[in-house]
Amino acid sequence: MEKMAPILSIENELFRIYIFYACVLALKVLIMSPLTAMHRFKNKAFANPEDVVTLKVKPKIHEDVERVRRAHLNDLENIVMFFVASFGYILTNPSVGFATMLFRIFTASRIIHTLVYAVYVIPQPARALACATGYAVTVYMAIQAILHFI
């Protein structure tokens, strides 16, 4: 009989998959800051007094900048919770195939959410569907972990 690798080991396929998608999502969150900065410079929309003085522009708010900032905040609200819930979920030793599918769905939903919200604005319900899909995955994994560890 083949010995199974510990759950939190690089020999464990599901743990490696979790780390891969966690890193993809971490990069996705990190990309949002330069995207915000790009929109700030493009639209000369700076809110901080020191930026306004240095760049010799008037302080202003621009909808494109605010849209990217809101998408970034939404990532922080959802992706961090995914990290916690999905980590708990992998500790339940789920099916590798099913867990991988959940990780992929969540990751795709967050990328789509940003695309339809902050890059190529598409009317609702596109953003709501993308957000709700990822949210449902996170809730499912959190509930499964809770039930497992009761």
TrEMBL record:
Single GO MF annotation: glutathione transferase activity
Spans traversing the lipid bilayer: 15-35, 76-92
EC number(s) stated in the UniProt entry for this protein: 2.5.1.18
Cellular location(s): Endoplasmic reticulum membrane; Mitochondrion outer membrane
Domain of life according to the entry: Eukaryota
Keyword terms, alphabetized: Acetylation, Endoplasmic reticulum, Membrane, Mitochondrion, Mitochondrion outer membrane, Transferase, Transmembrane, Transmembrane helix
Recorded topology in the membrane: Multi-pass membrane protein
Catalytic activity reported: RX + glutathione = an S-substituted glutathione + a halide anion + H(+)
A GO CC term assigned to this protein in UniProt: endoplasmic reticulum membrane
InterPro entries according to UniProt: MAPEG-like_dom_sf, Membr-assoc_MAPEG, MGST1-like
Family: Belongs to the MAPEG family.
Function (record text): Conjugation of reduced glutathione to a wide number of exogenous and endogenous hydrophobic electrophiles.
Subunit structure, interactors included: Homotrimer; The trimer binds only one molecule of glutathione.
Protein name, per record: Microsomal glutathione S-transferase 1
Species the sequence originates in: Aquatica leii
